[in-house]
Amino acid sequence: MARILLTGFAPFNNETTNPSWQAVRQFEGKLSNNGSPIFVAELPCEFHRATEELVSLIERHQCDIVLCVGQAGGRAEISLERVAINMDDARIPDNRGQQPIDRPIEAHGQAAYFSTLPIKAIVHCLRQSGIPAHVSNTAGTYVCNHLFYGLMHYAARNEQIWRAGFIHIPYLPEQAIAHPGAPSMSLDTLVSALDKAIETCLEQGQDLHFADGTLS
Amino acid sequence: MARILLTGFAPFNNETTNPSWQAVRQFEGKLSNNGSPIFVAELPCEFHRATEELVSLIERHQCDIVLCVGQAGGRAEISLERVAINMDDARIPDNRGQQPIDRPIEAHGQAAYFSTLPIKAIVHCLRQSGIPAHVSNTAGTYVCNHLFYGLMHYAARNEQIWRAGFIHIPYLPEQAIAHPGAPSMSLDTLVSALDKAIETCLEQGQDLHFADGTLS
Amino acid sequence: MARILLTGFAPFNNETTNPSWQAVRQFEGKLSNNGSPIFVAELPCEFHRATEELVSLIERHQCDIVLCVGQAGGRAEISLERVAINMDDARIPDNRGQQPIDRPIEAHGQAAYFSTLPIKAIVHCLRQSGIPAHVSNTAGTYVCNHLFYGLMHYAARNEQIWRAGFIHIPYLPEQAIAHPGAPSMSLDTLVSALDKAIETCLEQGQDLHFADGTLS
Amino acid sequence: MARILLTGFAPFNNETTNPSWQAVRQFEGKLSNNGSPIFVAELPCEFHRATEELVSLIERHQCDIVLCVGQAGGRAEISLERVAINMDDARIPDNRGQQPIDRPIEAHGQAAYFSTLPIKAIVHCLRQSGIPAHVSNTAGTYVCNHLFYGLMHYAARNEQIWRAGFIHIPYLPEQAIAHPGAPSMSLDTLVSALDKAIETCLEQGQDLHFADGTLS
């Protein structure tokens, strides 16, 4: 039996909602198909504190699968993030006013970590279920990538964590109204996507391998 | 009591589904809030024949509100089309192999017709309901614009038609999988949008007027 | 011998330059290949006054070919505009603070006019010359479309005008810096495009006809 | 005195030209402002062989600044790549038919390397010169990222290499014709951008630091 942690973020950048927490909160108190408990949490959109709270939750709940979710305004698909890089470069201040620029997240950390989620298998499963998804090769350089890197850095030192990674999701339709022309995805679709991602994490052994890269 | 005609299109351009008909068919046999009957139909994606079938349906059902719906692959929002132009310029052949290029739809028709739907009121209502929507100033030069022009040309000569126009909708999520990066909208959201468009047509007297144009 | 009027616009929307005037001013005092004089002018980005100044220039210089040029921020290609619609819907105020919304340009004018430039022949010529170009089916609902409609409305009543139309051009590279991700085109390319458009207007009899429409 | 290597790529993906080699070849036999020799080469668009030829050129010419350039079809700006990742995921076969999927470039290599070019200083200089530029956080997962990773892996083991990195550039205008709606940049602008990048590499000590990251 696995123990699963699913996190979303607080709203940021003048939004009043964050689709990641809206979707993640639907799993509160739920079990996976095989009866694994799912713990959920909303993390602050703040450098450092987001990671600290995440690590504290992992330890408190003794989780072995960790799936962090964040908003990617402007993207049209569910993004399975492939890689976290050791770099903060904040285009805008975070919710506490911090704006690190060109600063390593971990002073002596390695340059990057790859996700240990079965990202291709999740993309495959989502597409089979009628949900647009792809592998993304950048999680940006803001709090999402910061948390993702912090998670993988922690996971690399803690053997009990079997699978860890980050998923970016589009705006909700009601958010997209304030961003003319921006794509969105309904809450139902988002929740269904996270549900399938969790099940794939539990069921899939080795990841699948089919082409889903980008030329540039 | 109004009599409402709602049409979608058959799949085209190598698609196996068309979101317009998927959404429109949900209204089969339904009444509007005030009890007005809603007639639905799937039109062929063919120049001329689409318009002929539309006119035949209007006459058979004695409709006074006509709302045609079509797929706009690549758009992220519900598009209330403002204007139909008297021009076919088909980038690809239609489902019968016809490919008119730079040809007027009506040899002696006026250059364009404006929608008689309360397009701004519908955009306002959709946004209030959390659905991204905008006024579009081009319905393209393919079968959608052709049908829209044909509808307005007919309506201009038939006093019983109170309101007529065209709405473009995004891909369904399952379609967008084949179009990497393309926005989509869930069937639930599409149906809700059409429902609200119908209700606004029935309830709204004069259209609203707020800025929703484009600079270019 | 033709007499050609080429106009650009003053900067608007917080820009300090307008690529249309930067490109058009390069033709000051120039002759076409066949010796036809080219008159140039910068028009104000103002509803009504832009058209008034245009008409006054056409009459003063007795022009028979009129080519108006405007900035289409965000577009990547040279846009040969196909149609002007009888509608103002200003997303932002013009340079004089006017912001007409859903207002016909000419109270009793026809719904739209088609360009009388050989737009397909120009697109063909530009592509042959290595310059990305396409036919556009909307010039927006701001001052550009307003001027284009005003021009065509005037031209429809004045037999001496042989050809008239509107061309939208991308940002200059230096402008695009302030619009992250926006396409741009160099001044050299823009000037070359206008030069070829003028020559095509002079040399081309009937327009060409190849598919260059849009599905939606 | 530095010794500079500037490389472009051969055409790929059904193109007949590659803007990277078109721009790079203009520097053949040139010296930088301070008299440093610039060596140029066209590399094959092939996994492994591109890196092998690059390393051979670096050693033959004893270069200490290495700037590799590649085409990023669909981007509008000059992209200073921040990071190379240890992963091949080829969406299409390379020019020799190889299509590695989810395969590390170096079996025991580190997950990623950061560019040692003064990327922010170059972005700043280009913008000051009127050329749209930005820092990119993904060079994709095709031959460009493969070469970039191979370069940085080699450079990490060779003290004589002072600066090394990768720059992605848009399509040329003549290429964009085959990609409707795609941005492009003129050869003059591309050459000017590379010239300024080289000069910044030579003149700049520490890199500049201003926000140029992405939220996602």
Characterization of the model:
The structure is a homotetramer of 216-residue chains. By secondary structure, chain A is α/β, with parallel strands linked by helices. Chain A has one domain (4-203): Aminopeptidase (3-Layer(aba) Sandwich), CATH 3.40.630.20. Chain A is 29% helix and 21% strand. In chain A, the strands form three sheets. Chain A has a six-stranded mixed beta sheet, with helices on both faces. In chain A, helix 1 (19-24) links the parallel strand 1 (4-9) and strand 2 (38-43). In chain A, helix 2 packs across helix 4 and helix 3 (119-128) packs across helix 6. The radius of gyration of chain A is 16 Å and the shape is globular. The termini of chain A are far apart. The relative contact order of chain A is 0.22. The mean pLDDT of chain A is 98. Chain B binds chain C through residues 13, 70-75, 79, 82-83, 85, 87-92, 99, 101-102, 110-114, 120, 135, 137-142, 144, 168, 207, 209-216, and chain C through 13, 70-75, 79, 82-83, 85, 87-92, 99, 101-102, 110-114, 120, 135, 137-142, 144, 168, 207, 209-216.
N- to C-terminal separation of chain A?
Answer: 40 Å
Q: Into which percent range does the helicity of residues of chain A fall? A: 25-40%
Uncertain runs of chain A are none
Describe the biggest sheet of chain A? Answer: 6 strands, mixed
Subcellular location (chains A, B, C, D): Cytoplasm
Catalytic activity (chains A, B, C, D): Release of an N-terminal pyroglutamyl group from a polypeptide, the second amino acid generally not being Pro
Protein name (chains A, B, C, D): Pyrrolidone-carboxylate peptidase
Family (chains A, B, C, D): Belongs to the peptidase C15 family.
